[in-house]
Structure formats: C-alpha cells, structure tokens
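Good morning C.,

I know you're traveling, so I'll keep this short. The sequence:
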Amino acid sequence: MFERLTPRTPWAGGRMVDTDVLTLAEAASMATKHAGEPVTIGDFLRAAGRGEITLRAIVHRTAKVQKHDGGIYCNGGQENENRVPAGAIATLPLTACQHLAAAGRASWRTFDGFEMVDGVLQRYTKGELVAGEPDFETVTDDCRVMGYDVHALADEYTAPEAAQAEPQAAPAINTKAKRRTWWDVSSPYIVEVMQAGQYATCKELYRALEAKAGPNGPFDRGEGANRGSLFVREISRPLSLHTVQNKWQKLRELAKK
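The tokens, ready to paste straight into the viewer:
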C-alpha cells in the first residue's frame, strides 16, 4: 500500500552516511535536525510498519534458521551454517514492525529479503527459524535503522510539496524569478498521457510515465541514488510516486477538461 521512501534533498542532519547503523534515538535526533521539525522514534516505527523504510534489530541469542524453501539461509559451507549468532542485526519482518509501532514489543520468526522486479523493490520472506526454536523477542531499544532510511524519512518532513507546489501569482513589486518546479515542467505532459490512456490509480499512471521516459517527454529513468524514481530532466530533480500522488486529484481534474 505504501512506496519505499527515498532521499530527495542534500543531507543536513549531521555527520552520517547511508551505511551507518543508528539507534532509533540517534535516528530521530538527526532526522529532526535535517527536517527542522520534530521527528520521533514513533515516526520511524510507524514508517517501518507501513513498509516505507527497513527496520533492523539485534538478536540476543544464537538460533538455527533456514531459507524459506528449507535451503541454506546464511553462512553456507561454514561451521555456523544456517545459524544466526547472538548480536547479529537482522531485518525485521513487516508484522514485527507493526507490532513494535503499536505496542513497543514484537515476537517474530521470519526474515525479510528484498529484490528489484521491473524497477520496483519487492519484499518477501527470505528465511525463518526452524521448528522448535523459540520466537525472537524484540523491544524498541533493540531496533536499528540505516542512514539511508533516516535520510529518506527526514525528507518527508521537509515539506517538499511546499517547495514544489504550483506557484501562485506574485505581487507586482516582487521581481525575483521563481524557480521552475516539476509541476511547471511536466504537468501538461502528464495530463496528456492521462487523456490518452486509462489509469485507475496514480501508481498505474506512474508506471506508464516510467515506460514512456525518454527524449519525447520531460522524464528520464532515475539511475543510481534516484533508481526507482522518474528524473525531471529540465530541473535535474527526481520525482517520486509519493509526490505525484499528492497531486493525483488535481491531475484527474485537469485531465477531464
């Protein structure tokens, strides 16, 4: 139901890189500094419960595991094959994230994996505890989040729509030129695409725009850090599904004219 969040602005929350592993308290503090408004531990837990970011947790005991199909999940060919050691940081399943967000505690038995399919990041159950192993128990103090996801969530609080909204008429005395936005550059093209096709949801429209990306339109396919997003060529900025969804109703109204 929710797209994975991606960073969209230069990081301004302190000394951190995408691969850093942070506690939730550290993550909330840095995200708050970047966003300029409070971002809480609860915000991270809820985003993880929606699948918008990945949440990890320290496991406190060694446990035997297996791949979802009964094969080798980890440490293949080693003495500790299919064993998760105490102190390892594992990716939490979505249900555990939801329980942590709701109650601050979760019991879980599966490990999530991720794979890109047709440019969309898919989440699936990659491994599980073997029968007879007790559940892992996790509280919020055990949780960890990567710098990439801290940056991605913090960007949701920097009010990108306020910066990218359709500009209003400026007073005559204001001679400063307004910077062109994704809406200025691409909304007429998007409306044309909508009028030429049938799109029941914004996600269907976004995938169609991805398929049409190239020299005949304002978009390129995002690469590198912008992978999975459209890239607005003229203003050199990525355009996420989330941003287009915020204008979905307005686009539908324009397409009916």
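Safe travels,
E.
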